[in-house]
Design goal:
Helix 6 packs parallel to helix 8, helix 7 runs antiparallel to helix 8 and helix 10 packs across helix 11. It is built from eleven helices and eight strands. The two termini are 13 Å apart. The radius of gyration is 17 Å and the shape is globular. It has one domain: TIM Barrel, CATH 3.20.20.70. Helices cover 43% and strands 16% of the residues. The chain is an alpha/beta fold and 255 residues long.
Length: 255
């Protein structure tokens, strides 16, 4: 069965638009769990524009499902410039303090609106390998955010990753436009098969939604999808619990 991990970043973004604790992040995490979510994902960034470091600690204290923290492993500490918002401790120290079930390493920079590419391990492999070793020594499962490039995926195994997360924007865009869907889907199948041949688990995420998810759920060996933006948008229209049920159905699950 493919696990559905709900990304709470957009819930935090709504909260941060006001000087308030509403919507409450742990409360909404529990609503997702009660509705059938298999996991919770957050992506704390150094500017703390949505999920904040304290949110990660708050979630760690109450979650009964797998916790996945994703972010740039090279992000260092940063002082907060906002009242009531604690400093960002750096990504690796934050994850080490919490010890989530899974940590997904993503090569995103401060100026990116959202994650928009996977790791180039030919360039960054030597830097990322010791960080993977540090986190794995604490019992954390490590996933690397990767483009559907078989050569790069083979390097993910060599630097010590347990899983990859396939960056699915190109597939989502093809589905939206109706152009080249079969060819791009074939790229992702090949990438997943490469990962399986290397002994890596396969996760996926980015712009997956109710329309494009059913086909993608047939990708070989797919273990987990992490979905935030589209799911929260659908929840505005449908309600949170019915939306999570709909996404589970899109993954091929029945009540």
């Amino acid at each position: 069965m493919i696990a559905l991990s709900v990304n709470l970043n957009k819930i935090a973004l709504i909260r941060n638009s006001r000087d308030t604790t509403c919507p409450d992040i742990p409360h909404h995490a529990q609503l997702c769990i009660d509705a059938g979510a298999d996991g919770i994902t957050v992506h704390p960034r150094p500017d703390q524009r949505h999920i904040r470091a304290q949110d990660c600690h708050d979630l760690a204290g109450m979650l009964s499902v797998e916790f996945n923290i994703e972010g740039n492993p090279f992000s260092g500490p940063r002082a907060s410039d906002r009242d009531g918002v604690g400093d960002y401790p750096g990504f690796i120290p934050l994850v080490s303090a919490i010890v989530p079930a899974q940590c997904t390493l993503v090569p995103d920079g401060d100026k990116q609106l959202t994650s928009d590419h996977g790791f180039d391990l030919r360039k960054d492999g030597e830097r990322v390998a010791p960080l993977i070793e540090t986190l794995k020594s604490q019992g954390i499962r490590i996933s690397l955010f990767m483009d559907p490039d078989p050569g790069q995926i083979r390097l993910a195994q060599q630097v010590g990753a347990d899983r990859i997360e396939l960056y699915t924007e190109s597939y989502a865009q093809a589905c939206k436009t109706g152009k080249g869907v079969d060819a791009i889907y074939a790229q992702f199948r090949e990438a997943a098969e490469t990962a399986l041949d290397c002994g890596l688990g396969v996760n996926a995420g980015h712009d997956l939604n109710l329309d494009n998810l059913p086909r993608f759920a047939d990708i070989p060996g797919l273990l987990e999808v992490s979905i935030g933006h589209a799911l929260i948008v659908d929840a505005i229209r449908m309600g949170l619990a019915p939306t999570i049920t709909a996404y589970q159905h899109a993954l091929g699950k029945t009540p």
